[in-house]
Design brief:
This protein has helices spanning about 15-25, 50-55, 55-75, 90-115, 175-180, 195-205, 225-240, 295, 335-345, 375-380, 395-400, 430-440, 445-450, 460-470; strands at about 5-10, 30-35, 120, 125-130, 135-140, 145-155, 160, 175, 190, 210-215, 245, 250-255, 260-265, 270-275, 280, 285, 320, 360-365, 370-375, 385-390, 410-415, 420-425. By secondary structure, the chain is an alpha/beta fold. It folds into three domains: about 5-160 and about 285-355, FAD/NAD(P)-binding domain, CATH 3.50.50.60; about 175-285, FAD/NAD(P)-binding domain, CATH 3.50.50; about 360-470, 2-Layer Sandwich (Enolase-like, domain 1). It has 14 helices and 22 strands. Helices cover about 30% and strands about 25% of the residues. Strands 1, 2, 3, 4, 5, 6 and 17 form a seven-stranded mixed sheet that branches. The structure holds flavin-adenine dinucleotide and 1,4-dihydronicotinamide adenine dinucleotide.
Length: about 475
C-alpha cells in the first residue's frame, strides 16, 4: 500500500476537484478518485463530473448556439442584417460542445498536476477505519487498489431521477446525458418536468425548430422563483412557442422505435395523449451514493438519500466530510465548489465558511432568470416587512440598443433596516448581473448603498441601480 494521504477525495466533479486543489494548496498530500462514467473513447480519465461532462458546460454551449440561430432567424432582419433563413448543422454544434467539454476536463487534469493532486482512476468505496487511537486512518478501495487517508471528502454528486417504468435509453427517452446529444432536431419533443433542465433543454430544441411541450406536475409554474419573475417567464416562454402544461399527472408512457406516446391527465381531470419523437425526463436529481459502501462504516444517509452533514459538511464519522449534490442544499456547481473550499480550509484549521443565504440561482433561458436571497412570497410567509424596487429593462438604453428589453430587476429590502434581502432578475445577462446582488448581500449592503454607487452608462447594471433607487421611491429614469 502507498503512503497514506492526508486527504482523499471521492469524486472529481466541481465539489471534489475544487476540494482537492484547495487542500493541496494548503499543503496536504491529496488524492482524488474518479470512477469516470464519462470516460472518453481513449479510456482517459475525465474529471469535472456532471457539471463539465453532462451538465452546466455542455448545456450552456448548446444554449449559446441555439440562441445565435434564433437571433439569425428572427432578430437580425430588425437591425437591417439580411442573412436569409439560417440552417443548423447539428453534428457540428455537438462537436463544438464536445470540444469545449474536452478542453475543460483536460484543464482540470492539468490543474491536478500543477497542484500535485494524485488522480486515482476508479470507483472509491469505504473499507474500514484502522490504526491506533489518535492515529486512525480510513481505508478506501479504489478499483482493486487499497489506499489510506487521514481525512476523506465524499463528493459523489447526483444522478438523474427517472420515471418509474420508463427506462431511459438516451435515444428516444433521454435524461440529461441524452438530451445533450440529440443528433437531429426532433419535429416534436416532449419534456417531463418544467424545472431548470426542462426549461433550458426545451429552449435549445425549440429555438432550433422543434415543437416542444413541457408537462409539469405542480400546479404552479417555477414555484422556486419569485412569483413576479415566474409570471413574466411564463408569459415570455408562451410567446416564444414553448408550451408548458402545469398540474398534470403522467399515466402510461409507451416507447417505440418511432417515438413516444405519453398519456397524462390535465388539471381538470381530462385524459390526454402527447405524441413526440423524443422525450426528455427532467424531474429532478437524486444524491449518488452507489457502491460507496456507506453501510460498511456506518456513514449516515437520510431518507432522501443525502449523506447527513452539519453546516460545515461534517458527517457522523470522524474525519469524513461530504459536499455538493450528495448532501443537503441546492444542487448547483458553485455551491459544491464553495463547500469544497470550506472543508479543505476547516481541515487546515482555518475558519471555512459557506453562506447559503447568498448562493445565486440562474436559469439560462432567454431571457435569463437569476436570483439571490429571499423571494417576495418567502418574506410574506416569514412575516418580514419589506420594500420593493422594480424596474423594467424597457426603460434602459443599453437593453433597447441590444434589442433585448424584456424583463425587469426586482429588489427586496428590509422595511426597517433597508438591508437588501433579495434580488430577482429576468432579462438579458441576468446571470452576470446577479453577482452585484450577491456581493451586496454578502456585505450586508442596504438598497441605499447600491443607490449611491456610480454605475457605468449605458449598461444593463443601471437597471439594478434604478431598482435600488426605487426601493426608496426615487428612481431617476422610470
Ligand atoms: P458531480 O458533478 O455529480 O460529480 C460527482 C463525481 O463523482 C462524478 O464525476 C462521478 O463520476 C464521481 N463519482 C461518484 N461516485 C464515485 C465513487 N464512488 N468513486 C469515484 N468517483 C465517484 N449547476 C450550476 O451551478 N449551473 C448550471 O448551469 C448547471 N447546469 C446543469 C445542467 C444540467 C443538464 C445538469 C444535469 C446539471 C446542471 N447543474 C448546474 C448542476 C451541477 O452539474 C451540479 O450541481 C454539480 O455538478 C454538482 O457537483 P458535485 O461535485 O457535487 O457532483
Ligand atoms: P428540478 O428540480 O429543477 O425540476 C424538476 C421538475 O420536475 C419540478 O418542477 C417538478 O415539480 C417536476 N416533476 C417532478 N416529478 C414529476 C412528474 N412525475 N411529472 C411531471 N413533473 C414532475 O430538476 P431538473 O430540471 O431535473 O434539474 C435537476 C437539478 O439540476 C436542478 O434542481 C438544479 O439544481 C440543477 N440544474 C441547474 C441548472 C442551473 O443552475 N442553470 C441547470 C440545470 C440543472
Amino acid at each position: 500500500m502507498s503512503k497514506p494521504f492526508d486527504v482523499l477525495v471521492i469524486g472529481g466533479g466541481p465539489g471534489g476537484y475544487i476540494a482537492a486543489i484547495r487542500a493541496a494548496q494548503l499543503g496536504f498530500a491529496v488524492a482524488c478518485c474518479e470512477s469516470n462514467p464519462y470516460a472518453d473513447p481513449k479510456g482517459e480519465p475525465r474529471l469535472g463530473g456532471t457539471c463539465l461532462n453532462v451538465g452546466c458546460i455542455p448545456s450552456k454551449a448548446l444554449l449559446h448556439t441555439s440562441h445565435l440561430f434564433e437571433e439569425a432567424g428572427h432578430s437580425f432582419a430588425e437591425q437591417g442584417i439580411e442573412v436569409g433563413a439560417p440552417s443548423i448543422d447539428v453534428a457540428k454544434m455537438l462537436a463544438r460542445k464536445d470540444a469545449i467539454v474536452k478542453q475543460l476536463t483536460g484543464g482540470i487534469k492539468s490543474l491536478f498536476k500543477k497542484n500535485k493532486v494524485s488522480l486515482l482512476n476508479g470507483h472509491g468505496a469505504f473499507v474500514a477505519r484502522t490504526g491506533a487511537p489518535g492515529k486512525e486512518l480510513w481505508q478506501i478501495k479504489v478499483g482493486d487498489a487499497l489506499y489510506e487517508a487521514k481525512q476523506v471528502i465524499v463528493a459523489t454528486g447526483s444522478k438523474p431521477r427517472h420515471l418509474a417504468g420508463v427506462p431511459v435509453d438516451n435515444e428516444i427517452v433521454c435524461d440529461n446525458v441524452g438530451a445533450l446529444a440529440i443528433n437531429a432536431v426532433p419535429k416534436k419533443l416532449a419534456v417531463i418536468g418544467a424545472g431548470v433542465i426542462g426549461l433550458e433543454m426545451g429552449s435549445v430544441w425549440r429555438r432550433l425548430g422543434a415543437e416542444v411541450t413541457i408537462l409539469e406536475a405542480l400546479p404552479e409554474f417555477l414555484g422556486v422563483a419569485d412569483s413576479d419573475v415566474a409570471k413574466e417567464a411564463a408569459k415570455v416562454f408562451a410567446k416564444q412557442g414553448l408550451k408548458i402544461v402545469t398540474g398534470i399527472s403522467i399515466g402510461d408512457v409507451k416507447v417505440s422505435q418511432k417515438g413516444v406516446a405519453i398519456d397524462y391527465t390535465d388539471k381538470d381531470g381530462n385524459e390526454l395523449k402527447l405524441d413526440a419523437d423524443r422525450l426528455i425526463v427532467s424531474i429532478g436529481r437524486i444524491p449518488n451514493t452507489d457502491g460507496l459502501q456507506a453501510d460498511t462504516v456506518g456513514l449516515q444517509i437520510n431518507d432522501r438519500g443525502q449523506i447527513v452533514v452539519d453546516a460545515h459538511c461534517r458527517t457522523n464519522l470522524p474525519g469524513v466530510w461530504a459536499i455538493g449534490d450528495v448532501v443537503q442544499g441546492p444542487m448547483l456547481a458553485h455551491k459544491a465548489m464553495e463547500e469544497g473550499v470550506m472543508v479543505a480550509e476547516i481541515i487546515a484549521g482555518q475558519a471555512g465558511h459557506c453562506n447559503f443565504e447568498t448562493i445565486p440561482w440562474v436559469i439560462y433561458t432567454s431571457p435569463e432568470i437569476a436570483w439571490v436571497g429571499k423571494t417576495e412570497q418567502q418574506l410574506k410567509a416569514e412575516g418580514v416587512a419589506y420594500k420593493v424596487g422594480k424596474i423594467p429593462f424597457a426603460a434602459n438604453g443599453r437593453a433597447l440598443g441590444m434589442g433585448d428589453p424584456t424583463g425587469f430587476v426586482k429588489m427586496l429590502a428590509c422595511a426597517k433596516t433597508d438591508r437588501v434581502l433579495g434580488v430577482h432578475i429576468i432579462g438579458a445577462n441576468a446571470s452576470e448581473l446577479i453577482s452585484e446582488g450577491a456581493v451586496a448581500m454578502e456585505f450586508s449592503a442596504s438598497s441605499e448603498d447600491l443607490a449611491r454607487i456610480c454605475h457605468a452608462h449605458p449598461t444593463l447594471s443601471e437597471v439594478v441601480h434604478e431598482a435600488a433607487l426605487a426601493c426608496d421611491k426615487r428612481p431617476l429614469h422610470f
